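Each record in this resource describes a single protein on a pair of labelled lines. An example record follows, reproduced without changes.
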Amino acid sequence: MRIAYFINQYPKVSHSFIRREILALQRQGFEIERIALRGWDAELQDAEDLAERDRTRYVLQGGLKGLLRPMLQVLRERPRLFGRALWLALRMGVRADRAWPYHLVYLAEACCLLQWLNAFDAEHVHAHFGTNSTEVAMLASALGGPPYSFTVHGPEEFDKPQFLHLGEKVRRAAFVVAISSYGRSQLLRWVEHAQWRKVKVVHCGLEQHFHAGYSVAVPEAPRLVCVGRLCEQKGQLLLLEAVRRLADSGIACELVLAGDGEMRGEIEALVVRHNLQDRVRITGWISGAQVREELLAARALVLPSFAEGLPVVIMEAMALRRPVLTTYVAGIPELVIPGENGWLFPAGAVEALAEAMAQCLALPQAALQRMGDAACQRVLQRHDIDTEAARLAGYLKGLA
């Protein structure tokens, strides 16, 4: 099958799971055209992402003026379908997270997308995220393009499903993918029972080369690592409060914050305010190989997120035989089992977070290693990329 993947921004540091899925589908014989709205000028660390950028076409690379010609051409060639798609775009702008002029831009983007889909002879379009990328794919389908499906990750889609018109996108889709059972349950809330059969679960997956051959013993150093964008929902400010509590109690703890983001300045200021400069290190954006090295150099991954889907970094840490300390949020409890392969605590509870960190730091290496081994076994059973891509391939082939 000839499939187009459509993403808002691609490639992206935090979207390696999309790249893994595309490459796994190609190994299974699919021809895939990569199309994104933006990302041609993104700062990238991974050689694999740089290679993907060269394979991707960008709708907005020519600016908004570049959308005018394809829109006029579609209007001239398909006036009736254009009128229906215009009406749909205007409806999507009612009680929406963005005003209706944005949805007219989405229609123009859909006209450009449609021409590229036709040139590729695409049989289907798969979008990632139930936001504007899915709306553009939906409008391209309304213009006479191929059917579409999309993967919902959360938490953004679940924060404002009505304003994203998530139910309408599901109804018009050939099928919809959730990355966890929790995610599927949230989609079921916004569509009729007759639509439930469309909603599938396909986990994000890991490639073997990330973890194969990296069986490194848990280190003695009292080091924990938090990997993720420095932003409100990841809970790094709460994590610093927990580190301060450990320091006040005389418990040795080194914390690595692997990542960057809009809250870096605020996080750095709190590090200074709590006098944690000798306990906390911020790496900035790093490559996948560097993430792996930081995980292997730590006793465990700590991720005190307030909102999530199912973070890929949890899967990566577990595959590298590292336990995980994280929150009872979204799909996380489907993977992390307290006392077996990690710790779970309520989101926002700094006392519980500090206690989990103290327990992890006090646990003997042998016990931590047993938890890490159990973590590896569980994640490889549930999140092998070729197994999950085969499941997605089955849904795609079922449309042919």
Remarks:
- The radius of gyration is 22 Å.
